[in-house]
Amino acid sequence: MGKIIFYEDRNFQGRSYECNSECSDMSSYFSRCNSIRVESGNWILYEFPNYRGHQYYLNRGEFPDFQQWMGFNDSIRSCRLSPQHQGSFGIKIYEREDFRGQMMEFTEDCPNVYDRFRYHDIHSCQVYDGYWMFYEEPNFRGRQYYLRPGEYKRYTEWGASSPRIGSFRRVHHFH
Question: Which of 55, 47, 80 is nearest to 134 (CA)?
C-alpha cells in the first residue's frame, strides 16, 4: 500500500488530496498541483485523467514545486502505484513498428540510445521483464514514458507523440 499527498500550492500549502491507490480522475479534488509528498510506494503521475499526458515517476520524498519532479506544468489529474518487481529486467527495442527492423535487447539502463542502438527513434518494443521508463532525451531527461510488461507495436501505445527516445532505465523500487 502506498501513500501520496498532493497540494495545490508550492511548499505543501493550500488544499490537499491524499491517495492510497489508483485514481483515474482527480480533477474534482483540486485544480492544480504544485507540491507533492510521497510517504510510501512508487508512483506514476499523469497530466490528464485516465492515465494520459505527461508522465512522472516519483518515489518516497518531498517535492516542494513541480520543477522538482521535472514537471512541465502544475497539472496532475491521475496516478497509480507502480507494482513491486523483484528479479531481472529485460526489454527489446525495434527500429520500426510491429517489431520490425533492427532489434536490440537490454537488461540494464541505457543513458544514450543513439550511442548503443545507432538510431534516434524506437518505433516498437517488447517489455518481457520488469518495468521501464523511457526518456525523450539522453541521460534520463525530458518527457517520461512508463512501460509495463507487454508488447508495444507503435510508440503511441506508450503515450508518445514521437518515436524519439534518448535514454531509458529500469524502474527500481525504493522503500
Answer: 55
Distance, CA of 175 to CA of 41 (rounded, Å): 7
Q: Are 130 and 171 in contact (CB under 8 A)?
A: yes
Q: Which residues contact 41 (CB under 8 A, 6 or more apart)?
A: 1, 2, 3, 4, 59, 60, 81, 82
Enter the pTM of the model: 0.82
Of residues 72 and 56, the one with the higher pLDDT is: 56
Q: Are strands 35-40 and 3-9 parallel, antiparallel or unpaired?
A: antiparallel
Would you give the DSSP letter of residue 164? B
C-alpha distances out from residue 79 to 4, 16, 169, Å: 10, 15, 20
How many Å apart are CA 112 and CA 104, to the nearest integer? 14
- Categorize the per-residue pLDDT at 175 as very low, low, confident or very high, splitting at 50, 70 and 90: very low
Neighbouring C-beta atoms of residue 140, cutoff 10 Å: 17
Alpha-carbon torsion 129, 135, 136, 137, what sign? negative
Give the three cell numbers for residue 33: 498541483
* Domains of the chain, CATH where assigned: 3-81 (2.60.20.10), 90-170 (2.60.20.10)
